């Protein structure tokens, strides 16, 4: 088994990375940063996003495994004190592979078209203030937006920025993308839906802005600036991201643990009915 590893860079993550390399070597796992089969991240979800973009060109051939060193991560199945168990399973068992959809973003400028993949989301804002943009769905006009910005998220990224602007949480097996508003301004000139909406695979959303307006674009953790943008096309990508699961960790359990909390001693709502 060939693997690569990225850590967050803090002292704890570096120490855990050294421990993993030592245990992996003892069990016959091979470190290969160029052509790995498994890519591990040690840190948080941000570290896994960095790992995803580093190996974007190999995304169809590799699987990711996350180890979190702090709070529960949506992309991390393993805790910092479980490295030995993880290494043993990697060396002796074949994991279950789960695949989640990605977002494809094509940005066309006077200089050409650039294509990006996002694991979590694409965000669009104006560099100079309020964003004004026309949104078309499948080449038909849909709405005229004015506000702070737009978030287009994958299902697995729906628990991030999308949720903070009141978007819905989607199960990551759904092949879809979600478009949410950031502080929209609605009046007689600019009218929007006022809520997030979800498009299935094979649909696309075009975002058209004033070419003279400089734009701030976010692709996950990456921040880019563009000028002379003629169109932005968002769609569900043909490629998918793969995660290696060496034990079950249901998505809704992650959501519950992250946002609601869970007490193993809680026997359910029947025990907590108000009197």
From TrEMBL:
<feature type="active site" description="Proton acceptor">
    <location>
        <position position="45"/>
    </location>
</feature>
<feature type="binding site">
    <location>
        <position position="146"/>
    </location>
    <ligand>
        <name>NAD(+)</name>
    </ligand>
</feature>
<dbReference type="InterPro" id="IPR002504">
    <property type="entry name" value="NADK"/>
</dbReference>
<feature type="binding site">
    <location>
        <position position="148"/>
    </location>
    <ligand>
        <name>NAD(+)</name>
    </ligand>
</feature>
<protein>
    <recommendedName>
        <fullName>NAD kinase</fullName>
        <ecNumber>2.7.1.23</ecNumber>
    </recommendedName>
</protein>
<dbReference type="GO" id="GO:0005524">
    <property type="term" value="F:ATP binding"/>
</dbReference>
<keyword id="KW-0521">NADP</keyword>
<dbReference type="GO" id="GO:0006741">
    <property type="term" value="P:NADP+ biosynthetic process"/>
</dbReference>
<keyword id="KW-0963">Cytoplasm</keyword>
<feature type="binding site">
    <location>
        <begin position="120"/>
        <end position="121"/>
    </location>
    <ligand>
        <name>NAD(+)</name>
    </ligand>
</feature>
<feature type="binding site">
    <location>
        <begin position="45"/>
        <end position="46"/>
    </location>
    <ligand>
        <name>NAD(+)</name>
    </ligand>
</feature>
<comment type="similarity">
    <text>Belongs to the NAD kinase family.</text>
</comment>
<dbReference type="GO" id="GO:0005737">
    <property type="term" value="C:cytoplasm"/>
</dbReference>
<dbReference type="GO" id="GO:0019674">
    <property type="term" value="P:NAD+ metabolic process"/>
</dbReference>
<keyword id="KW-0067">ATP-binding</keyword>
<feature type="binding site">
    <location>
        <position position="183"/>
    </location>
    <ligand>
        <name>NAD(+)</name>
    </ligand>
</feature>
<dbReference type="GO" id="GO:0051287">
    <property type="term" value="F:NAD binding"/>
</dbReference>
<dbReference type="GO" id="GO:0046872">
    <property type="term" value="F:metal ion binding"/>
</dbReference>
<keyword id="KW-0520">NAD</keyword>
<dbReference type="InterPro" id="IPR017438">
    <property type="entry name" value="ATP-NAD_kinase_N"/>
</dbReference>
<dbReference type="Pfam" id="PF20143">
    <property type="entry name" value="NAD_kinase_C"/>
</dbReference>
<comment type="function">
    <text>Involved in the regulation of the intracellular balance of NAD and NADP, and is a key enzyme in the biosynthesis of NADP. Catalyzes specifically the phosphorylation on 2'-hydroxyl of the adenosine moiety of NAD to yield NADP.</text>
</comment>
<keyword id="KW-0808">Transferase</keyword>
<keyword id="KW-0418">Kinase</keyword>
<dbReference type="Pfam" id="PF01513">
    <property type="entry name" value="NAD_kinase"/>
</dbReference>
<feature type="binding site">
    <location>
        <begin position="159"/>
        <end position="164"/>
    </location>
    <ligand>
        <name>NAD(+)</name>
    </ligand>
</feature>
<keyword id="KW-0547">Nucleotide-binding</keyword>
<dbReference type="GO" id="GO:0003951">
    <property type="term" value="F:NAD+ kinase activity"/>
</dbReference>
<dbReference type="InterPro" id="IPR016064">
    <property type="entry name" value="NAD/diacylglycerol_kinase_sf"/>
</dbReference>
<dbReference type="InterPro" id="IPR017437">
    <property type="entry name" value="ATP-NAD_kinase_PpnK-typ_C"/>
</dbReference>
């Amino acid at each position: 088994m060939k693997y690569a590893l990225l850590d967050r860079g803090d002292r704890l993550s570096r120490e855990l990375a050294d421990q993993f390399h030592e245990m992996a070597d003892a069990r016959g796992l091979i470190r290969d940063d160029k052509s790995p089969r498994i890519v591990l991240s040690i840190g948080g979800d941000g570290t896994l996003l960095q790992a995803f973009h580093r190996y974007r060109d190999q995304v169809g051939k590799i699987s990711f495994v996350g180890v979190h060193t702090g709070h529960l991560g949506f992309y991390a199945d393993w805790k910092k004190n479980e490295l030995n168990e993880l290494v043993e399973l990697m060396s002796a068992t074949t994991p279950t592979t789960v695949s989640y959809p990605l977002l494809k973003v094509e940005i066309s400028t006077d200089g050409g078209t650039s294509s990006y993949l996002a694991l979590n989301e694409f965000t669009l804002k104006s560099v100079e203030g309020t964003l004004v943009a026309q949104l078309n769905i499948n080449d038909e006009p849909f709405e005229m937006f004015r506000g702070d910005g737009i978030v287009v998220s994958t299902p697995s990224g729906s628990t991030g920025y999308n949720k903070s602007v009141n978007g819905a949480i989607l199960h990551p097996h759904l092949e879809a993308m979600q478009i949410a508003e950031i502080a929209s301004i609605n009046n007689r000139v600019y009218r929007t839906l006022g809520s997030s909406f979800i498009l299935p695979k094979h649909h696309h959303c075009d975002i058209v802005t004033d070419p003279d307006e400089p734009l701030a674009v976010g692709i996950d953790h990456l921040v880019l600036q563009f000028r002379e943008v003629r169109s932005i096309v968002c769609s569900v990508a043909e490629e998918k991201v793969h995660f290696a699961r060496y034990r079950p960790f249901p998505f809704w359990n992650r959501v519950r643990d992250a946002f609601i909390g869970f007490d193993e001693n809680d026997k359910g709502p029947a025990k907590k009915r108000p009197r």
